[in-house]
Design a protein that fits this description.
With 521 residues, the protein is α+β, with helices and mostly antiparallel strands. The chain has a domain at 379-518: Orthogonal Bundle (Neutral Protease, domain 2). The chain is built from 12 helices and 25 strands. The chain has helices spanning 12-43, 53-57, 61-69, 300-321, 352-357, 361-370, 387-405, 407-425, 444-466, 468-481, 489-500, 505-513, and strands at residues 2-3, 90-97, 102-112, 119-125, 130-139, 148-150, 153-162, 167-177, 186-188, 191-194, 200-201, 203-204, 209-210, 227-235, 239-241, 249-254, 257-263, 272-275, 279-282, 290-295, 328-334, 341-344, 347-351, 379-380, 486-487. The strands form 6 sheets. The chain has a 7-stranded mixed beta sheet with strand order 5-8-3-2-14-17-16, with helices on one face. A 6-stranded mixed beta sheet has the order 1-19-20-21-23-22. A hairpin with a 4-residue loop joins strand 12 and strand 13 (209-210). Helix 7 crosses helix 9, helix 9 (444-466) runs antiparallel to helix 12 and helix 10 (468-481) packs across helix 11 (489-500). The N and C termini lie far apart (49 Å). It binds zinc ion.
Length: 521
């Protein structure tokens, strides 16, 4: 392992002073940023220069090479489900991140209608902190009236339906707030957690738009995989880590602002971490995916431990489900208190308190690694069917312990992580069941015990009914056939029936839809 050269990081104190200068600094920076954005066309590629040579020498520099070398999700085996990008579909985002927590920019979505019906509208999902949004440009279709905003939904009516196979390009101008505080999104102690930060096109499944809204708990959005070109102007001195740990290219530094450019292959969403607070440890050697962990002061040992667990989980899940979908994987310690861990394409956030307590750290790391298959590679609607990726990630965690430490360890994790959670409070929710939208759960407790708890126990019941060979065939089939796409309960049932060579409808109905009181005690 190689230790990061910490001299490249600005000290927390000097950054704190800059944060206090906040508003004045932002005004200057926003002006500089605007100049850079406006000058973008003329600067173009000609201005590309290595402006921070130290960064290239830091341990994480290898991630850049890895991303350039591979950087692509595997091509799907079958192109049968919607929600998978086609041709040159994708996102271009040009935005300025200001010190006053405002993100202002433009997002252009290029989208081909792969449904057999014409689309009479485009429906976008807005970030939670959205301040303003306006349709700036539409190519390939004509707006059929004024766009309408309702909650986190932004609808652009089309004058005539967009036929199957036709491509449309929509540019939205927007501004949004990043939260301040120790949450999974926003600015926490000098660490910028940049996610849920741009309007995205909702998924159309051939019949309806998946335009759900989140609750106070659970995930924020459900996106189709897409390629991204992101041009981000942010405070200089921050190191950036995007999907699969991609460091981006610094294409301009002007005063206190830097402009970074990222280009990705298909990923579930574009999220990044900007920081001047982290040290880094990375695995040495050529093993792929490349592995690194970013840690905050005093937590290097915990980060090294996390790295070891992540490597074992990546190996186990690659064997069980199929190849990991990217060139690198990064564990980012984050000063967050709302989640123990959060998954993004090719990187995860782990809360500092997990590193401090060490309590259950391995299972949290493994759960988030499992999401690289059940969320990033194979998507599911995290708002309408939140149980799918959580039950799969939670059950995968027990599979890891089973493979790594033996069947008793697997059972013990399933008991601790699913059964205990479910059993403890199930009498309080006799009418509840698993397969419902996140907003239909009355409390976070009910949501967790049903999606993580009873959902994982359902997969155990499925395994017992199918037998190991067919059950693992089912999981491998899910990952292979739906790579880059998404699955629903219906898809899961079809895949399970196919692997089992019989109908498992009764089991799906009992475990996912029947009131809890109907299940055995
Ligand atoms: Zn999860």
């Amino acid at each position: 392992m190689v230790r990061a050269d910490k001299r490249v990081f600005m000290s927390g104190r000097s950054w704190g002073v800059m944060m206090r200068l906040g508003r004045t600094f932002h005004v200057i920076m926003a002006l500089i940023g605007a100049v850079i954005v406006l000058a973008g066309a003329t600067l173009g590629g000609a201005a590309v220069a290595v402006l921070q040579p130290e960064l290239a020498q830091s341990t994480a520099g290898f991630l850049n090479l890895a991303s350039k070398a591979v950087g692509r999700l595997p091509q799907p085996a079958k192109a049968e489900s919607h929600g998978r990008q086609s041709g040159d579909d994708g996102y271009e985002i040009e935005a300025v991140l200001g010190l006053d927590q405002v993100v202002a920019g433009k997002v252009t979505v290029t989208f081909t209608n792969d449904a057999s019906v014409g689309l009479d509208r485009l429906v976008f999902h807005l970030p939670r902190g959205l301040q303003t949004v306006a349709l700036e440009h539409l190519d390939g279709a004509q707006a059929g009236g004024d766009p309408a905003r309702a909650g986190l939904m932004y609808t652009v009516p089309l004058k005539s339906p967009l036929p199957q196979g036709a491509q449309v390009r929509a540019t939205l101008k927007y501004s949004t707030f990043l939260a301040q505080g120790h949450r999974r999104q926003g600015i926490s102690s000098g660490v910028w957690l940049v996610n849920d930060w741009y309007p995205s096109l909702d998924v159309f499944d051939g019949e309806h738009w998946h335009a759900g809204e989140g609750a106070a708990f659970g995930d924020y959005s459900f996106l189709a995989t897409a390629s991204y070109k992101v041009r981000l102007t942010a405070p200089a001195g921050l190191s950036a880590y995007g999907p699969y740990g991609d460091r981006g290219r610094v294409v301009a530094v002007e005063g206190s602002a830097q402009t970074l450019v990222f280009e990705t292959g298909p990923v579930r969403e574009f999220a990044a971490v900007l920081t001047d607070q982290h040290g880094a440890v990375a695995e040495v050697g050529q093993t792929r995916p490349a592995l690194a962990a970013l840690y905050l002061a005093g937590h290097e040992a915990a980060a090294r431990g996390a790295l070891g667990s992540a490597r074992k989980a990546l190996t186990t899940f690659s064997e069980l489900f199929g190849p990991y979908p990217g060139p690198a994987f990064v564990i980012v310690e984050a000063p967050i208190t709302d989640f123990k861990g959060v998954e993004f394409p090719g990187f995860i956030l782990i809360s500092s308190s997990q590193y401090e307590s060490g309590d259950g750290l391995e299972s949290v790391i493994v759960h988030e690694v499992a999401h690289q298959w059940w969320y990033n590679l194979v998507g599911s609607d995290q708002l309408e069917e939140p149980w799918i990726d959580e039950a799969l990630a939670n059950y995968s965690t027990s599979l890891y312990f089973e493979k790594e430490y033996g069947p008793a360890a697997g059972r013990s994790i399933l008991n601790a992580g699913a059964f205990a959670l479910y059993r403890a409070r199930r009498s309080a929710y006799p009418e509840s069941y698993v397969a419902k939208p996140v907003t239909a759960f009355a409390t976070e407790e009910e949501y967790k015990m049903m999606t993580y708890g009873r959902g994982a126990l359902f997969l155990q019941a499925l395994r017992e009914a199918m037998g190991d060979q067919k059950f693992f065939e089912f999981l491998r089939g899910l990952a292979a056939d739906h790579a880059g796409g998404y699955v629903t309960e219906k898809t899961l049932r079809a895949e399970a029936d196919r692997a089992a060579r019989r109908s498992l409808a009764g089991l799906f109905d009992l475990w996912l839809h029947q009131p809890d009181a109907r299940l055995p005690r």
